[in-house]
Design goal:
Chain B: This is Electron transfer flavoprotein subunit alpha/FixB family protein. Chain B: One of its GO terms (molecular function) is flavin adenine dinucleotide binding. Chain B: Belongs to the ETF alpha-subunit/FixB family. Chain B: One of its GO terms (biological process) is fatty acid beta-oxidation using acyl-CoA dehydrogenase. The complex is a heterodimer of chains A (about 270) and B (about 325). Chain A is an alpha/beta fold. Chain A is built from seven helices and 15 strands. A nine-stranded mixed β-sheet of chain A has the order 11-10-9-12-8-1-6-7-13, sandwiched between helices. Chain A has a two-stranded antiparallel ribbon with strand order 2-5. The longest helix of chain A has 17 residues. Chain A is globular. Chain B is of the alpha/beta class and about 325 residues long. Chain B folds into two domains: about 180 residues, Rossmann fold (3-Layer(aba) Sandwich), CATH 3.40.50; about 120 residues, 3-Layer(aba) Sandwich (Rossmann fold), CATH 3.40.50. In chain B, the strands form three sheets. Chain B has a nine-stranded mixed β-sheet with strand order 9-8-7-10-6-1-4-5-11. A five-stranded parallel β-sheet of chain B has the order 14-13-15-16-17. A two-stranded antiparallel sheet of chain B has the order 2-3. The chains are: A alpha/beta (about 270), B alpha/beta (about 325). At the A-B interface, strand 2, helix 4, helix 5, strand 9 and strand 10 of A face helix 4, strand 7, strand 8, strand 9 and strand 12 of B. Strand 11 of chain A pairs antiparallel with strand 12 of chain B, so a sheet runs across the interface.
């Protein structure tokens, strides 16, 4: 039986207009969603299970987050993950910033419990965007790894993942990685499915285990990092754009005049 | 332990610009701590790279002559050993795809706190104050690191590239690379932006982003491009969704374009996108959100619904 562990985060989303309260965005302007990158990681894991045989691959998700995020976890289960682990307790609730080191320590304990062959994590989260947890975790659990993967071809017999890493400037690096490995998954690697009604119904019955730090053999020292969030502000707009105001006919006509001046559409 | 060690970035025989930006960021930090700025360049033609990296403000360049191309296991092992030798207070790496493939591993192995994608760094007494964005650039945060040492990655194009010629000593560093611990191998590279159209050649680009909402709405963008005699390009989400081919993508992982006129429609202007089009002569933004980052670099803007403005604009040119 092969096991794929997918790290899943519920991220905070912010409305276009918002206010800051201290070092956080005022809750009134926050929403919650499945992290976009993790959606692709879940899809990749489910596609692996479908390709190899769903009875031969166990897809497990792990989330660090409060009870509120179970709806997001159920989304992953509805899309085809087999079961879920959620790590949370009062210590985590009271921490104002979980840095890469803290997330690594928690996920390391989960990987040691679960012993997966492959870990898929999103390249980054849409809210704090550290882009580092997957690779840090790989090193902590002594797995191989590859960051920013946009194509994955698994050779289970050969214990190898052939991946493409998306470098800057439209260049892809083709790399073979030995298993077990952590791969950080880039958007666009696949087309994440929508959960079917049947999937949503089945997700309600799938196992979702909650673990406290103590259950994982950890204590509160994991959240005592050297990083502190001390300020948050809206970046000052540097815009010196000429803004056309008025209805669409008016603004379009003004823009058209400028474009013609630049020789566009002549 | 007041020194700074910065790791140069190179690919396929070329040093990347961020390497020189690391020199600037590193020099500022070393001035604040009163230490030296060490650079390391690992793999490839290290001696030629070291000559180029010897810019004003660099004290030492360490060369690790092992292999040709980037391999994160080689980098991780070499940097861990260099940190042992140099004992830097701050380890600086680029926030590039390759930087993110080794910096978190190095930080984990050395038990260093890690702060990524920084856009500004200051030293205040014993504290490193890093500025970085959250929520896709909607807010800027300050993060304080109070430990004795830290690992930091810097965002490209935020610091000026260092210039001039320095007086650095160039030292070959004899890293011991455990080949059994190398678990990945690069088998090749591929350029993905080929195909029917080179958006890099276009004088006028009509570029579309997430604001278009549905694939069928793209017809509107094609109509506008036809009316203007322009070429259609896009931001990442449109290509991720499979609505346009990869060769139409503008940005860090797509193409860098510098047309005469760039019309951004329903594009918020994430930093990865802006990196690919900020050199355009004239930038027009059509977006409902007046606070979208694209407005910072726009020359002309309409803060309105693209589904109202674009049909009106097509009408103007028919």
């Amino acid at each position: 039986m092969m096991k794929v562990l997918v790290t899943v985060k519920e991220v905070a989303t912010v409305e276009d207009e918002f206010e800051i309260e201290g070092t956080a965005i005022d809750e009134r302007y926050l929403g919650a969603d499945l992290n976009e990158w993790d959606d692709y990681a879940i899809e990749e894991a489910v596609q692996i299970a479908e390709a190899i045989g769903e009875d031969e691959v166990d897809v497990v998700t792990v989330t660090i987050g409060p009870e509120d995020c179970e709806q997001t976890i159920r989304q992953a289960l509805a899309k085809g993950a087999d079961r879920a682990i959620r790590v949370w307790d009062d210590t985590l609730e009271d921490a104002d910033l979980l840095d890469v080191g803290a997330k690594t320590a928690i996920l390391e304990a989960v990987v040691e419990d679960e012993d997966p062959d492959l870990v898929l994590s999103g390249v980054q989260s849409g809210d704090d965007s550290f882009m580092a947890t997957g690779v840090s975790l790989a090193d902590a659990v002594d797995f191989q790894w590859a960051a920013v993967v946009n194509s994955l071809d698994l050779d289970v017999e050969g214990d190898t993942a052939s991946v493409r890493r998306e470098l800057e400037g439209g260049v892809e690096e083709l790399t073979d990685v030995s298993l077990p490995a952590v791969l950080t998954i880039q958007t666009g690697i696949n087309e994440p499915r929508y959960a079917s009604l049947r999937g949503i119904r089945m997700a309600q019955r799938k196992e979702l285990t909650v673990q406290r730090l103590a259950d994982l053999g950890l204590d509160s020292s994991v959240v005592e990092g050297d990083l502190r969030l001390t300020g948050m502000s809206v970046p000052e707009s540097e815009s010196d754009a000429t803004v056309f105001a008025g209805g669409p006919e008016e603004t379009a006509s003004e823009l058209a005049a400028i474009l013609r001046e630049k020789g566009v559409g002549q | 332990m007041t020194d700074v060690l910065a790791i140069a970035d190179h690919r396929r025989g070329e040093l990347r610009d961020v390497s020189y930006e690391l020199v600037s960021a590193g020099r500022d930090l070393a001035d604040a701590t009163g230490g030296d700025l060490h650079l390391a360049v690992i793999s490839g033609t290290v001696d030629a790279f070291a000559e180029k990296l010897n810019r004003e403000g660099v004290d030492v360049v360490h060369t690790v002559d092992y292999g040709e191309e980037f391999n994160h296991d080689v980098y991780t092992q070499a940097i861990v050993q260099l940190c042992d030798e140099v004992s830097p207070q701050f380890l600086l790496a680029p926030n590039s795809v390759n930087g993110l493939d080794y910096a978190p591993a190095v930080a984990n192995r050395l038990d260093l706190p890690l702060v990524t994608d920084t856009v500004d760094l200051e030293v205040d007494g014993d504290t490193l104050v890093a500025t970085r964005e959250m929520y896709g650039g909607k807010v800027e945060t300050t993060v304080e690191l109070t430990g004795e040492r830290a690992a930091v990655t810097i965002r490209g194009a935020e610091w000026p590239g260092a210039s001039g010629t320095g007086e650095a000593t160039i030292e070959a560093f004899d890293a011991t690379i455990d080949e059994d611990a190398i678990g990945s191998s690069v088998t090749g590279f591929e350029e993905v932006a080929g195909g029917d159209v080179d958006i890099g050649d276009a004088d006028v680009l009509v570029s579309v982003g997430r604001g278009i909402e549905e694939e069928e709405n793209l017809e509107l963008i094609h109509e506008l491009a036809d009316a203007l005699g322009a070429t259609v390009s896009s931001s990442r989400p449109i290509v991720d969704a499979g609505w346009l081919p990869k060769n139409r993508q503008v940005g860090q992982s797509g193409k860098v374009v510098t047309p005469d006129v760039y019309i951004a429609i329903g594009i918020s202007g994430a930093v990865q996108h802006v990196a690919g089009m900020k050199g355009s002569d004239t930038i027009v933004a059509i977006n409902t959100d007046p606070n979208a980052p694209i407005m910072d670099i726009a020359d002309y803007a309409i803060h309105d619904d693209l589904f109202d403005v674009v049909p009106a604009l097509i009408g103007e040119f028919q």
